[in-house]
Write a structure and sequence with these properties.
Layout lengths: L1 H5 L13 H12 L10 E6 L2 H7 L14 E8 L9 H18 L3 E6 L4 H11 L5 E3 L1 E6 L21
Antiparallel strand pairs: 1-2, 2-4, 2-5, 3-5
Helix pairs in contact: 2-4
């Protein structure tokens, strides 16, 4: 639970490489997410190639922070063989949140760059990674060792809670 109240968006990273074991643990956490009918629509592209990282950092106006990361994880989802394909992006959101919380718990930082449902962004990422036609880019998760530290803001707002008796 600590990660829920500690996690912040990190956009500046050190040059320290992220250990493969930590990347696999982050992906393990993502794959542990619940999904509609257990359809598990996810696959993941782990990007460490500097040229691909640079290209992905230019895929939309808010992606520039990806350029200084050591690793990007691009979660993608299948478009075939799903029981409820219209829920794939919801499933991916839960998966992405699990990944982010595990990233924080491992002492790393990250930021979730939205790709889906923006078709132009999805197509740019697909082109850069040469994705097969049956996979759609969902997001770019930029991660690494944080070069900055800050506190998470308190977002609790009791006025948004409505008890129905």
């Amino acid at each position: 639970m600590d990660a829920i109240f500690h996690r912040v968006s990190v956009r500046k990273f050190t040059n320290q490489p992220v250990e493969k074991e930590k990347i696999l643990q982050i992906l393990r956490a993502g794959m542990q997410a619940p999904s509609t009918g257990n359809q598990q629509p996810w696959e993941f592209y782990v990007v460490t190639n500097p040229d691909k990282i640079t290209a992905l950092s230019k895929c939309h106006q808010y992606a520039g922070c990806a350029a200084n990361a050591q690793v990007l994880i691009v979660p993608v989802y299948r478009t075939e063989g799903l029981w409820l394909p219209q829920n794939a992006q919801i499933d991916m959101s839960i998966c992405q949140e699990n990944m982010w919380l595990e990233t924080d718990s491992l002492g790393l930082g990250g930021v979730w760059l939205g790709i889906a449902p923006e078709r132009d962004r999805m197509e740019k990422v697909a082109e850069i990674l040469d994705l097969p036609a049956n996979l759609e880019a969902f997001s770019i998760f930029v991660l690494g060792y944080p070069a900055e530290a800050r506190e998470q803001q308190n977002r609790f707002d009791e006025s948004r809670i409505h008890f129905v008796n």
